[in-house]
Each structure stands twice: as structure tokens, then as C-alpha cells.
Amino acid sequence: MLLRPYLIAISVCFATISNKNFHVLSALMVEMSSDVIDALQVHNQARIKAVGPERPSLIWSESLAGAAHTWAKHLANENTLKHSSSSGQGENLFSRIGKGKATFAMAATAWVDEMPLYQGEAIPVGDFEAYGHYTQVIWPNTREVGMASAKSKQGWTYVVARYSPPGNYVNQTAWS
């Protein structure tokens, strides 16, 4: 399937009043692929449906996507799925082997599909992998996401998502 880029216009307007005239100083145009748009939609629909306080929609971060790309390439080179030891960003991982592209939306859907396994408990020390991807997606304080993928010589595709601020703080719940 050919992914057509869509142009998303984000207007950042600065207005000044001078002799009763308004002057628009700038506007910003950002190009996003349909896969990025679909992945953001999966993330943001999960955030809307989540129990607890209203969560702002996540916005795409090219900086986080760059960090995700660096780690995805590392995973593909090593042909292994393991979390980065870097701090300051949340991280979700997804891998798939075989024909067909592993899309960002496919990865995000897999993470959101953990939703029934989370019942609002505080994040424990240690193992919470059954629902930890989902809780990162809906973490109330998270505002930005960036994603990237890379394919190994062995045919595995690794998808990495990075989040800021990170979530999954021990002894805190994703529902408050």
C-alpha cells in the first residue's frame, strides 16, 4: 500500500494591534504520513476512552521520532527486542516478522489492546509488561510521541515509540 503524505496545517498566529490593524506574523506547515496520522489517532482514541481525568491529545514530536529511529536501527542491527537504558523518555516496543509492513498504527493498536489487562492499579516495581505499553499510551501527563521503525537482515521489523514526559511511574496509577 502506498502511503500518501498528508499536509497538516498548524497555524501559529501572533497578532499585534497597530492602528486598529491586526498583523499575522507566522504560520507553520507540518507534513505527516498517513501512518503517523493513523498512529496518533489510535493513541488519542485510547486516551479519550481511558478512565480518569481528561487527557490532552498527544502531538507528534520529530525529536522523539529521531530518538526512536536511532534505537530502532540499533534493535534491527542486533536483531533483538530490548528496552533502551536511556532515561527521560517513555518507550514502547513492537516487533514483527514476515511479509507486509509493520505500521506505526499496527504497533499502537497492539499496545492499546492491553487495555482489558489494566484495572487501575499502581505501577509496581518490576514486571508489568502485560499492560505497561497501554499505560504509557494513556499516561495523563504525557504530551508528545514520536515513532520510527527499522528492519533487520533476518526480516524482523522493529517499531519504537518514544514519549515525553514519560509515564509508568512506580506507585502511581495511569487513571489519576
UniProtKB/TrEMBL annotation:
It comes from the Eukaryota. SUPFAM superfamilies: PR-1-like. Residues 34-171 form the SCP domain. GO terms for cellular component: extracellular region. Pfam families: CAP. InterPro entries: Allrgn_V5/Tpx1_CS, CAP_dom, CAP_sf, CRISP-related, SCP_GAPR1-like, V5_allergen-like. PANTHER family: CYSTEINE-RICH SECRETORY PROTEIN-RELATED (PTHR10334). This is Putative pr-1-like protein.
